[in-house]
Write a structure and sequence with these properties.
Layout: H1 5-12, E1 19-23, H2 29-36, E2 42-47, H3 50-62, E3 69-73, E4 87-93, H4 95-104, H5 106-109, E5 114-119, H6 123-132, E6 135-145, E7 148-157, H7 165-170, H8 172-176, H9 182-200, H10 204-207, H11 210-227
Helix pairs in contact: 1-2, 4-6, 9-11
The structure holds S-adenosylmethionine.
S-adenosylmethionine binds next to β2, β4 and α4.
């Protein structure tokens, strides 16, 4: 079975031999890949919606992996008992949804040894949540697939110092390692912020708001970082 580059980068961050819960599994591609390559021992594949849940069930049955992959329907970490999984993956969702999932089952989140997240938006909010909730970012990757750039973050329980504010946006380890896709990533962030500021520029009230100032400062910090590359 071949998986795309994005899921491959996520798979590469999953420790060998663990039980992993893939929350929002959709077709269960990740657990099927990890189990069929003997990378992990067991998996829980959870999804909130009936369609993806059934896709996952069918895919796991077709791969004859029902004994090792438990497909469950439910909201976020509701499908995982405390201590049941060491690693949780939450990929392909918005950052606020990811935080909501982690926050709403603290008794499960507290027993995890590794968290791997791939937020589609609001990655900076996810990093801030991790840093202020006892998670240390240990690995970050950028992957380009079908012309789109994805950020993947792995964290483990541990204390860390607050970051220079703009590094919540960029990713501290992507910056530190000067990831090969870093320039493209920063340019995407700049284009996005310019778009937001241009949209706000139509309203005098918006231009004088604290949000506008905050976005303008962020844009300047990103442009400064770009010149350092
Ligand atoms: C875009 S798919 C991502 C699938 C896969 N994780 C990936 O990265 O390729 C998002 C999936 O998350 C599921 N989902 C969204 N919110 C969820 C929640 N609170 N709990 C469980 N699943 C959720 C959706 O039903 C959908 O199947």
């Amino acid at each position: 079975m071949k998986i795309g580059e994005r899921l491959q980068a996520i798979a590469d961050m999953v420790p060998v031999g663990v039980t992993m819960a893939d929350i929002g599994t959709d077709h269960a591609y990740l657990p099927i890949y990890l189990i069929s390559h003997s990378i992990i021992a067991r998996a829980i594949a959870g999804d909130i919606h009936q369609g993806p849940y059934l896709s996952a069930k069918n895919a796991v049955a077709a791969a004859q992996l029902e004994e090792l992959i438990s497909v469950r329907r439910g909201n976020g970490l509701e499908v995982v008992r405390p201590g049941e999984a060491e690693t949780v993956v939450i990929a392909g969702m918005g950052g606020l949804n990811i935080i909501d999932i982690l926050r709403s089952r603290p008794e499960v989140t507290a027993t995890l040894k590794r968290l791997i997240v791939q937020p589609m938006i609001a990655a900076s909010t996810v990093r801030m949540w991790l840093q202020t909730n006892g998670w240390q970012i240990l690995n970050e990757q950028l992957v380009q697939e079908d012309g789109k750039l994805y950020q993947i973050i792995a964290a483990e329980p541990g204390e860390s110092q607050p970051l220079e504010p703009i590094l919540y946006e960029i990713g501290p380890l992507l910056w530190q390692s000067r990831h090969p896709l870093l320039l493209l990533h920063i340019e995407e962030l700049i284009v996005h912020l310019r778009g937001v500021l241009a949209a706000m520029a139509g309203s005098a009230e918006a231009v004088h708001s604290a949000k506008y100032r905050e976005f303008a400062d962020k844009l300047k910090d990103l442009e400064d970082k770009r010149t350092c590359l």
